[in-house]
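Session log. Operator J.P. requested a structure for one protein chain; no other inputs attached. Running the standard single-chain path with token output.
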Amino acid sequence: QVQLVESGGGSVQAGGSLRLSCTVYGYAYSNACMGWFRRAPGKEREGVAVIHTDTGSTYYADSVKGRFFISKDNAKNTLSLQMTSLKPEDTAMYYCAGSFFRARCAGIADQYNYWGQGTQVTVSS
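Structure written below.
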């Protein structure tokens, strides 16, 4: 059974940084797109950052480019999101997601089959 378990998140003031981590259980962690999505109250789910486990190719939403950085550790089956220069509009529930046996990655939620339980990020002004 595949499980994605997130950690990190919390509350921070604007301009601060946070790091999210996700560990994948039950999958060999290859040939997959792994990513972070977020949903703010009253808004649609948004693809934040995605990375391919084999090629390392990445996708970032325009709203986070230059501030958020996605990384992976294939040996540990983990995915991380380093968030810097956080803004109040980054406040949301963040989800780790996986789309297995996929060659090309995109920040499209419908392409992702497995999801973590979510972790809250709150940025105060």
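Operator note: The CA atoms of residues 4 and 105 lie 18 Å apart.
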